[in-house]
Amino acid sequence: MSEFLTIGEPIALFASQDTDQSLKDALNFRKYLAGAEVNVAVGVSRLGHSAQYITRLGEDPFGDFIKDQLRENHVQTDYIDSTPDYWTAFQLKNKVSTGDPDIFYFRRGSAAAHFDAKTLDRIDFSEVKFAHLSGIFPAISEQALAAFRHLIDLLHEHNIRTTFDPNLRPQLWSSPQKMAATLNELAKEAEIILPGDNEGELLVGSRDPETIADFYLNQSARTQTVVVKVGPKGAYVKNKGEAGYWVKGFKVAQVVDTVGAGDGFALGLITALMEGKSQRDAVIRANAIGAFAVQAPGDNDGYPTPEQLQAFLDKNLAVMGDDFE
After folding, report:
1. Entry pTM
2. Domain span including residue 46
3. Residue 71 pLDDT level (bands cut at 50, 70, 90)
4. Nearest C-alpha neighbor of 130 from the set 268, 299, 281
5. How many CA atoms lie within 13 A of 112 on its CB side?
6. Three-state secondary-structure class, residue 122
7. Count of domains in the chain?
8. Domain presence at residue 298
9. Are 207 and 240 contacting, i.e. CB atoms less than 8 angstroms apart?
10. What does the alpha-carbon distance between residue 292 and residue 53 come to, in Å, rounded to a whole number?
11. Distances 153 to 122, 156, 159 between C-alpha atoms, Å
């Protein structure tokens, strides 16, 4: 049993240690646990909440590594199946001095892409407060998409609050049009939607935060809140029937790696809401953990403990003042 659950494809990540070298030319790599939904589960657990991760792994060294890493990070693995028939996904990521790193996936036909939806019927939802859904898992196969929809039905049946992060991975979809249509349809099922402004351009044809928010609030009676991530600027928040507002982001001395920042944002928002904090305070925490994430090389290595988070907020909020408009 846990307070939080998510479903996804965990990945063994080989991150280059050779700065500004292409994946072709890089020689030195370090292995990490990665995957957007994994990142959220790890961060939720690190902040003291129980987290459950749902997936399927291959019976191979990468699958064993992922299970060990999840357990080391106190993420529960009750609903992780293993199969000898398919392999566990992995990926390569280069190291850059500025900008976003290049990523190459080895995941087509993976164990998670052959996820058995019967696993979902074993889940104990009795203590779950929040479920986080991402647009990545439904992109990896039609089988995963069907399981994703089944999980949504179960979450609604048990009245569990859901967040949805589009988490665009165009290389996993047959076309940009199918990606946008499918993800916008799935977004209708979430109470809280967490797009980035750059994702809005691909999904709704606009980078304007209010336009993005209005699109998702208007397309579904279930959706109550849209929080648009706008990088270092912070986030734009709009609730159904209300005026939107901005919450400023935090400045960092050096950006090491932007991967994992959006997942850090999600886990910050979710954990704060689970703790009964106000929406504005939840978005402040989300921005803070996003700032932590961009200062570390691994996808989830930079997520804070409660003590580290509080120290960061105490220091930075004093400098920024109380006005986040």
Report:
1. 0.92
2. 1-130
3. very high
4. 268
5. 29
6. helix
7. 1
8. no
9. no
10. 23
11. 14, 5, 10
227 bridge partner residues: 237
CATH of residue 33: 3.40.1190.20
The Cα 29–Cα 18 span in angstroms is: 8
Closest by CA to 113, choosing from 7, 183, 9, 40, is 9
Residue 223, in any domain of the structure: no
The length of the chain is: 325
188-198 pLDDT, tens digit per residue, is: 999 999 999 99
Residues 207-254 have pLDDT tens digits of 999 999 999 999 999 999 999 999 889 999 999 999 999 999 888 766
Asked whether the beta carbons of 113 and 146 are under 8 A apart, the reply is: no
Tell me, yes or no, if 263 is annotated catalytic: yes
> Does residue 80 belong to any structural domain of this protein?
yes
Using alpha carbons only, what angle is made at residue 109 by residues 188 and 265, rounded to the nearest 5 degrees?
Answer: 40
Catalytic residue among 60, 197, 257, 263: 263
